[in-house]
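Ticket #4471: structure export looks truncated?
Reporter: QA, pipeline team
Priority: medium

Steps to reproduce: submit the single chain below to the structure queue and open the exported record.
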Amino acid sequence: MVQSVEVVLDDELDSAVRAQWARLREAGLDSQGRIRAETNRPHVTLFVAQAVPSELDETIRAAVGPLPVPIRLGGIVVFGSRRVTLARAVVPSADLLAVHARVYDALRGCPGVPEHIRPGDWTPHVTLARRVPAHDLGRAVVTAGTRHAGESGSVTAVRRWDGTAKREWFVAGMPGPARA
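Actual output as written to the record:
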């Protein structure tokens, strides 16, 4: 499994993404909202590796720098082919790109870092649904909608995610209330 470093959205952007999750579920489509775990939050992944030692939490905090960091959500993006991931693009501001580059530089020695997470190859996004069958893609895009493309807000916390243990912990900032 993997471990990741992620930034968490402010309450307004979190609510907007959760509303999209709910619309997808209500339409009978896959949605991140189907995950009932308390740790399920809209987020942007900054870094992924097979392992990120917990001893690096202070290094991560320093690399991120002061919070909040402004962020703006864009339109819908799709990753994959037969079963796709549906996501909201994140408009890559200079501030967000700088945070990503510093975190990557601080952690690039971790084992199993995929190429797509490198600066210049990274596509910041917030996942709406995974494993959407290609024949449902059009309906999913329309259902999720982009009525709110360009929503601005901020990232307010940095969390670590351990995919094996299914555990999160925060290394900087404070998240809003969990809403499973």
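Status: closed, not a bug. The export was complete when the record was re-opened. Leaving a note from the reviewer for reference: The first helix runs from residue 11 to 26.
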